[in-house]
Design brief:
2 copies of one chain form a homodimer. By secondary structure, chain A is an alpha/beta fold. Chain A has a domain of 143 residues: Rossmann fold. Chain A is built from 8 helices and 9 strands. Chain A has a 5-stranded parallel sheet, with helices on both faces. In chain A, helix 1 crosses helix 7. Chain A is globular. The two termini of chain A are 27 Å apart. The mean pLDDT of chain A is 93. The interface between A and B is large, with 46 and 46 residues.
């Protein structure tokens, strides 16, 4: 069976480890392609152009919107974030499962345009565990931790809009669970029309031939 | 997380090996309970009361219908077939995933009453392979093989009403795929309301406390 590519949205609270899960999927299986977002915000320490984000000016971003070159875009804290269309559609056409690591506003926009996209939300085992991870990083000031926890409250209100949740307790298990969810999506009859139709036709031929 | 039980319908053409997959699920994992159907048809050679079916009279079956003791029932070739309610509801309440090995008419009835039930259709790798398996059994007359193939044509028209298909090429793989589908269903947020709500509440408490 030749497989159709699936659009996979992965969201989750800051510090929940969704980036590690995404890296694990890309490294562990050959069916994934990772979409890189475009943004007008400034690069942070250690971020790499074309890997972390495509960093562009506001004018460049707005031109991209006008050209219909983004499949979704949203604005957070005065900065644009969007998903370039060409890479996503190219990879889907090649049968790759394309991963978008985006936030809920983007996830909603994707679901509207691609109702067959699968939306996955990564949860911590508990909220306390999430806070401990953020504090434990040692790189965030108490002020930033507080902001992220407040943002997590807002984000958590959208969890029921997602198709599946993955609890990131042990990361290897979370990667396997995420992969299984996506594999399961490939088993829907609507994603196997050619195969099902060939079985139907072949059965008819055999029944007629007898 | 305490899990809610899921109602799992498994259908497939005669000879496709769905019984072997169901046995593999029951033997290989502890989350499954197998529902035994009730029927008015005569037991066949080797069939065991209470394991293959509950064999009852037409009067007993109709009394069961009147008492609302069946969650679905259908009639094939003049015989009743139905799913006793008590066992299914009892096992679901205990958190078991209850497997019903039933045909499409029953599957449709189940989906109407239990929209969250998952419907799985087991396919052969090809129609030719299905015919070879039926012929290869050596237990069916050419006449019976022909009848089953004609019935398969009818059944194949309903495949798109199922949520997922499983191709039974290698049986161990088919068992694992079926299990993964059911595990994925457990990851839906609606099946984890208590967990998601506790995360939401805990996040709010932490955010307020800071």
């Amino acid at each position: 069976m030749e497989r159709e590519g699936i659009l996979v949205v992965i969201s989750g609270f800051a510090g929940v480890g969704k980036g590690t899960i995404v890296k694990g999927l890309i490294a562990g299986y050959d069916n994934y392609a990772l979409s890189v977002s475009m943004t007008t915000r400034q690069p942070r320490e250690g971020e790499v152009e074309g890997q972390s984000y495509f960093f562009v000016t506001k004018e460049e971003f707005e031109k991209k919107i006008e050209e219909n070159g983004l499949i979704e875009h949203a604005c957070y804290v005065g900065n644009y974030y969007g998903t370039p269309r060409a890479y996503v559609e190219d990879m889907l056409a090649k049968g790759k499962d394309v991963i978008l690591e985006i936030e809920i506003q983007g996830a909603r926009n994707i679901k509207k345009q691609y109702p067959d996209a699968v939306l996955i939300f990564v949860c911590p085992p508990s909220a306390t565990e999430l806070k401990n991870r953020l504090v434990g990083r040692g790189t965030e000031t108490p002020d930033v931790v507080e902001k992220r926890m407040r943002r997590a409250v807002e984000e958590s209100e959208g969890i029921f809009e997602y198709d599946y949740i993955v609890v990131n307790d042990e990361v290897d298990k979370a990667i396997a669970v995420t992969h299984n969810i996506i594999e399961t999506m490939h088993s829907a009859p609507k994603r196997n029309r050619a195969f099902v139709t060939s079985i139907q036709n072949e059965l008819e031929d055999i029944a007629k031939g007898e």
